[in-house]
Design a protein that fits this description.
- By secondary structure, the chain is of the alpha/beta class.
- It folds into two domains: 3-61 and 370-412, Urease, subunit C, domain 1 (Roll); 63-359, Metal-dependent hydrolases (TIM Barrel, Alpha-Beta Barrel), CATH 3.20.20.
- 39% of the residues lie in helices and 23% in strands.
- The longest helix has 17 residues, at 101-117.
- It is globular and about 65 Å long.
């Protein structure tokens, strides 16, 4: 048995009452939270082999990145200032196609490392079509919690030929991957059905994925939808109906489906999302950089649709820091609705934690600091100049802090990052491999 006490000046629970405990602490045994309370009472009732001090620290449940492409990290900075379809066809998908097995592992591990370093303990990750095993292995190696799977594409609409696979082969690969990876690593790794988007997925494939989902427990469909107006127009030409209507007729909506973006919907489509209990992942930085539009998060929330936050991939962000997503998500809604009260800091922080966990159907295990839940959490240092003064710790996390303020990260009760050092990932080795790839790209 391993046990640890983690202290904090402020302990942000993100529980039902959104309780904040001053001078708080949690007691962790193996991979679970066993007790939460004041620093004084935790030390009175428990002793631990390890004590992580909490002076000038905030303790927070791990951030949940509900939409990421870790495998794209080596392409950071190579696809700037392009519209979505050009961004995909000219840079990102050809770049992914060119990766060797080692580069898939390196790029994915680099992405997971950046997420961990900035407080993300869980992600919903879409890999590429080739060598996806190496991306899943990177997730295993990193220690992060994830829903993850290969990217699925069986239709060529101007995409690299090497990325397009036969529908039957995709189904065979998916079933094999589910057997190899789903609910492994003490349930830290869960497989997902990552249909790229409807422009690259046939109706036959989407229907097959819906059938597979129904035959296996706790597997989600993860796809892009209604991100860009030109993309929506192309989908309507290809499928003969609008994006969300098409997904609904393909039986691809529901509480086991999460849609990235969800910007360009009409009222019928919003109601379909609500009626089917489909989940949305909002990606404010990506939507801004690609000029896709501003997702109406407030409308979704008013309809009681579950919405999480995501970073998307490094080429359209260009970082994987969920703190930036929280801040921008709030600001964009205020501008969109010309209302300074919409999406306040408490709501945004919950989107990045417990609501993100709900979006991925993981909220019984993660997303808040509660007794019995997994010990997925992190400390934020509040000793630097950007923390003075600090009136409200939640406001500070959303509006003032950044991922670089993260001091310690724990997943499954294991410390993955502490005092500016990774405990599992060899950052120097990653840096060297990334440099080799960069030099090869520039040749």
């Amino acid at each position: 048995m391993s046990d640890v006490i983690i202290e904090a000046d402020y302990l942000i629970t993100c529980n039902l009452t959104n309780a904040v405990i001053q001078d708080g602490a949690v007691y962790v045994v193996d991979d679970r939270i066993k007790a939460i309370g004041s620093r004084k009472n935790i030390h009175k009732d428990f002793s631990a082999n390890v004590v992580i001090e909490g002076l000038n620290k905030i303790l927070v449940p791990g951030l949940v990145n509900t939409h990421s492409h870790s495998v794209q990290t080596l392409l950071r900075g190579k696809a700037d200032d392009l519209a979505l379809i050009d961004w995909l066809q000219k840079i990102v998908l050809p770049g992914e196609t060119s990766f060797t097995t080692d580069e898939v592992h390196t790029s994915s591990l680099l992405g997971f490392a950046e997420m961990i370093r900035t407080g993300t303990t869980t992600c919903n990750d879409m890999l590429t079509t080739k060598y996806s095993d190496y991306g899943i292995q990177a997730a295993i190696d990193s220690g992060i919690r994830t829903r993850i799977g290969k990217m699925l594409m069986d239709v060529n609409n101007g995409f690299p030929d090497d990325m397009i696979e036969h529908t039957e082969k995709i189904v065979e690969d998916v079933i094999k991957d589910i057997g190899d990876y789903h609910q492994t690593q003490k349930n830290r790794i869960k497989y997902s059905l990552n249909a790229r988007f409807l422009l690259s997925c046939s109706p036959q494939l989407m229907k097959k994925l819906s059938e597979i989902q129904k035959n296996y427990p706790d597997i989600m469909i993860h796809t892009h939808a209604s991100e860009n107006r030109e993309e929506c127009a192309q989908v309507e030409r290809y499928y003969g109906k609008s994006y969300i209507r098409a997904l609904n007729e393909l039986d691809a909506l529901g509480n086991q489906t999460i849609l990235a973006h969800g910007i360009w919907l009409d009222d019928v489509e919003y109601n379909l999302i609500k009626q089917t209990d489909t989940r949305i992942t909002h990606n404010p930085s990506s939507n801004s950089k690609l000029a896709s539009g501003i997702c109406d998060v407030s409308k979704y929330l008013d309809m009681d649709v579950i919405v999480g936050l995501g970073t998307d991939g490094a080429p359209c962000n260009n970082n994987l820091d969920m703190f930036r997503e929280m801040r921008l998500a709030s600001f964009l809604q205020k501008v969109k609705h010309l209302n300074e009260r919409v999406l306040p800091s408490k709501v945004v922080l919950k989107m990045a934690t417990i609501e993100g966990a709900k979006a991925l159907n993981l909220d019984k295990e993660i997303g808040s600091l509660e007794i019995g839940k997994k010990a997925d959490l992190f400390q934020v240092d509040i000793s630097d100049v950007n923390c003075i003064p600090l009136y409200d710790p939640i406001s500070h996390l959303v509006y003032s802090a950044s991922g670089k303020d993260v001091n310690m990260v724990m997943v499954d009760g294991k410390i993955l990052f502490k005092d500016n050092q990774f405990t599992i990932i060899d950052l120097q080795n990653l840096r060297e491999k990334a440099t080799l790839y960069q030099n090869r790209w520039n040749e």
